[in-house]
Amino acid sequence: MLIVASAGAVAAVRPITDLPLQADGPNRWRLPAGEYRGSFRIDQPLKLTCAPGAIFQAEGQGNGLLISAPDVSVQGCTFLDWGDDLTAMNAAVFIQPQARGAQVLGNRLQGQGFGIWVDGTQDVSVIGNRIQGDTSVRSQDRGNGIHLYAVHGARVIDNHVRDTRDGIYIDTSNGNLLQGNTLEDLRYGIHYMFANDNQVLGNTTRRTRTGYALMQSRKLTVIGNRSEQDQNYGILMNYITYSTLQDNVVTDVRDGSTGDTMIAGGEGKALFIYNSLFNRIENNRFARSAVGIHLTAGSEDNRIAGNAFIDNQRQVKYVASRLQEWSADGRGNYWSDYLGWDRNGDGLGDVAYEPNDNVDRLLWLYPQVRLLMNSPGIELLRWVQRAFPVMKSPGVMDSHPLMQAPTQKEPA
């Protein structure tokens, strides 16, 4: 195996042209198999393809590869053991602001720091990479798999990220596409902060502490994603406005009880909506979780219709200040515990679905009352509420519940 030695423990970043590149066409270069030690940079437009067995070994210092020129492509390389200084933003591949149009394609990355950091540039493609963190390090001390900061027009597609801190983190970045990524065994699968006009399509999260943490953003299009066996929250919406959640599937969300949650009270919620308004939540499936949907902190004026809530321990948790109607254009949602009927065969229940009552509200406001759940006093309260509906508190009503769960659409 060819070995290019580093020039010391803290070697300077060297140009990629120091390596034994082989011409592979106009402005195209091929890096032969071998272990190339140290940190390298690409400061001119070029396309670099690694032969099988070509490995960048950064020896625990700095970045593996720094891209500082436009129109650079890096494909098929392996990056190992780059720096773990998160304050210095150490990454296997660090893409600088001047590297517009960079492409990072089909590489393998394994280390403790950030995987791919994209910093303040445009039109970057991060496609088909496999990124793995180091499980010997606490998750909060690992870097994110893919980190976008102040980025516009990025395409992050078909990557597989596991055992990093967050799978894909997006901060102050607008107009980007995340599609077809698989994100496993993480803190948060996809994490949005102050990022608008983004598309999140056909991604899958598994065994994360939150599948999709959508925070402080607007005009997100979240369609055709899956959350499987995540903890605390499948999808978390925190200060999200004017966004669309459609054709997503969230199943088997568990109460992780890790104490590492964005908002206190992670109870295995398929969908948690916190202070989020004017969103369309349609044709999603929320199943086999502790809570199907929880709304709080003024999360009203959302359109919630055509969804299926199947076999959740509690379908809805909502302490309301006014009645919330969860149907639109004469069409509501499917509830697996609905006990009504459909006499005219139009596919809609003839009796409204009301998931919560005054006793539920009392239990949410004063959890210690749970000690009296089966007491005669609690049973009397439920009887009085049924006998005298005028005493009911405002809550959720689905006036047109669906008798059959809608068919899920496959992502485009």
TrEMBL record:
Domain Carbohydrate-binding/sugar hydrolysis: from-to ranges: 31-171, 177-351
SUPFAM superfamilies from the UniProt entry: Pectin lyase-like
Cited InterPro entries: Carb-bd_sugar_hydrolysis-dom, NosD_copper_fam, NosD_dom, Para_beta_helix_rpt-2, PbH1, Pectin_lyas_fold, Pectin_lyase_fold/virulence
Top-rank taxon, per record: Bacteria
Classification via Pfam families: NosD
Name by which UniProt lists this protein: Nitrous oxide reductase family maturation protein NosD
Gene name, Swiss-Prot/TrEMBL: nosD
